[in-house]
Amino acid sequence: MIGRPNKPLAQEPRYELIAQVLRRNILSAVLPKGLVLLEGPIAALMQTSRMPVQAALRMLADEGLVHRFDGRGYLVGSEDPALSPLRRDISSFALHIPQQVDDALQTRGTWRHFYDDIEEQVALCQVFGEFRIVETELADYLGVSRTVVRDVLSRLQERGLIRKDASSHWIAGPLTARTVREKFELRAIVEPAALRLAAPHIRYSQIEEFRDRIGTDPSLKPESLEDALMDYCIAQAPNTALVEMIQNNQMLLTSVNRALTGLGLPEDAIALDQYRTLFDLIARHPIDSAAEYLRDHLHIMGAKNLARMKIVAMISETVGFAPYLSPR
Amino acid sequence: MLTTQSDQTTQVAAPARIQRRRLRVRGTSITLLKEVRERAQADLGFDVEYELLDFITCQRQAAMQPEGYDIYEQCFHNLDIVWFWGSLQPIDTQRIADWNKITDLSKEGGISKYAWRGHGDAPVRKLYVQPGGFLGPKQGRYISMLPTVHNMDSFGFDTRVFGQGDVKRPSWSWLLDRRAKGRIALVDEPAIGFFDAALAAESAGELQFTDIGNMSIAEIDGLMALLEDRRRQGYFCGSWRTGEEAARLLQEDRVSAQSMWSPVYGHLGKMADVFVESAPVEGYRAWHGGASLSRHLNGPQLDMGYEYLNWWLGGYAGAVMARQGYYMSAPERTKAALAPEEWAYWYEGAPAARDLLGPSGKVVVKAGARRAGGTYEDRANRIALWNTVMEEYNYAARSWDRFIRRVNEGQK
């Protein structure tokens, strides 16, 4: 199985590609301090919709490379009251765009250009109830043919985000506590088993490396650790059917989690400590102890996710839904 | 949950010549009473500011803006929201002087070993901070909320419609009874009113829940479909969020059966003779309130927080709470702060030896009256269900909101 660092660029989420381009040009000062970055012009330049640009800018803001200010958009550089906003069209700068990134932006399947945005919108709507996705409306919304829309929909179906009802309508949600509980119960059964099988194949040096970063690298998020556990440990199990089942079972949880964090729900700081113990056990102790700990860890994560499902009730429906989503 | 008009807004102390210390309390009309605030200020020597909000708004703002308050006074059931949002900090029971005076209903989940715990989330299940940041019943040094005021709620009914309740004992089913059609109101809070409706549906024989305190999606759908059907038939005349709104529906003679909160019985106006509190055969829907510390408190500000929490158990606050029908987790000191005839009426179920005054000094109980349901022990032994934030709360709350919106818009 392929770990994140080896993933071909064309499969990287679009926002990461955009962030890469902007990051490189900010660090090399092609984009000067104080320059106002607006979603629209960047989206036009990168030939994409605004959503991944939004996500990329948020990422860069977290890294301290750009910051919000009184006006629309972001300013390049860290916060500095002396900085005055510089308003110039981004296309007037000679942006350096690495060849592979440019290729990746251009050569992804047509639907991949906007898939991430649609997945986020569809994942998010489910916490508010049941929605029908109207194919024609989605085609209008994206400005593409219905053939392309079908590609997008079948990908969403693969990931467990939508299903067809008796009259062949595409339905999303509602995401219930029961679904979350069942998915975590399944995880607690199969993932420790996969970890045991994987023992001889685990990439131990990578796990040690991640373990050492916990507590010292503040940019490290629980999601990266979850990815590392998947890529370097569980996915190394010599049983493709088992690994696929585990990955499919996680997909809905991952996309909903990402959507909820995007809405401002708090992240879990305690999870980092648990990963430290888990990675310790994996790297330095018999695999059975790590498998047992993983099972406990998944029980706890399940309970936390159920708790998170309750606090979702505080998010009001005024977030607005894309026009192709109609509440049922 | 009635308060005087002046208490409706945030109480801001007059600008002081020297910077006075102050403690900001965010809460609901259950505990944010002028009488409590003024006495706390006098006893503690610092300003106490109140921000009074309805349940839902209070819970939302407590979760999302923890910087805006120092103390959060609310119910245990909504810790599922506010605690898990990460807005509060654990309370060290070693800094609570009267911790050992708090009774077993709060600390163990029932007033005795033999008392039935009730469905749903007894407050003890949210009381102790467990390893990993969870809340649970396993006793430990740190708690999420200092248990204070609590009560066993029921509904109220019109004796002209249902009789005195002596021939046929009141049942939650009366909240969906044909005799009250068009004159029924529910409290609009999805962890409270939702359960009034659920108790009504089950006791009327319309629905059965495997676990009424943790319903499945199908059961929630079933309940909402039943309520929607009754709504279309015109059973409901409205909903309410505050005690004032509940009292207004009564004073305008618009309801024959509705969810009720204890203090409202002191403000029925001319309906006082005909509208009475029930002691339902199925038992009560109970709740437990308390006070928590905001996440941001530390140093001297945290010390003030602890001073205030300790003060709450001192007796005075408990006496004010008793006068609006609420019980206190540490009753010993409350008893000392009440007149004997007040204690006898509110806690012991005895006939009022004289007219009794409410928190603001108005007569709320006439001489000779008796509290429905009897003594504290009798009532606390008959808890059917606790206010609860179920696993499927997000789904239930959104369905409930849509229902309430239709009730209030009177859609056909």
From the structure above, extract its key features.
heterodimer, A: 328 residues, alpha+beta, Arc Repressor Mutant, subunit A, Four Helix Bundle (Hemerythrin (Met), subunit A), 3 domains, 4-stranded antiparallel β-sheet, 3-stranded antiparallel β-sheet, 13 helices, 7 strands, 6% strand, globular, disordered N terminus, B: 412 residues, alpha/beta, D-Maltodextrin-Binding Protein, domain 2, 8-stranded mixed β-sheet, 5-stranded mixed β-sheet, 14 helices, 19 strands, 31% helix
If classified by CATH, what would the architecture of the largest domain in chain B be? Answer: 3-Layer(aba) Sandwich
Mean pLDDT of chain B: 93
What pattern of helices and strands is seen along the backbone of chain A? HEHHEEHHEHHEEHHHHHHE
Low-confidence stretches of chain A: 1-8
For the record, give the distance between the C-alpha atoms at the N and C termini of chain B, rounded to a whole number.
Answer: 32 Å
Averaging pLDDT over every residue of chain A, what do you get? 85
Oligomeric category: heterodimer
- Overall, the morphology of chain B is globular
> Which strand order do you get reading across the main beta sheet of chain A?
5-6-4-7
Strand content of chain A: 5-15%
The CATH homology group name of the largest domain in chain A: GntR ligand-binding domain-like
| Alpha plus pi helix count of chain A | 13
Radius of gyration of chain A: 21 Å
Number of DSSP-assigned strands of chain B: 19
CATH class value of the largest domain in chain B: Alpha Beta
Most strands sheet of chain A = 4 strands, antiparallel
Largest sheet of chain B: 8 strands, mixed
CATH-level-4 superfamily name of the largest domain in chain B = Periplasmic binding protein-like II
CATH first level of the largest domain in chain A:
Mainly Alpha
Q: How large is the radius of gyration of chain B?
A: 21 Å
CATH architecture label of the largest domain in chain A: Up-down Bundle
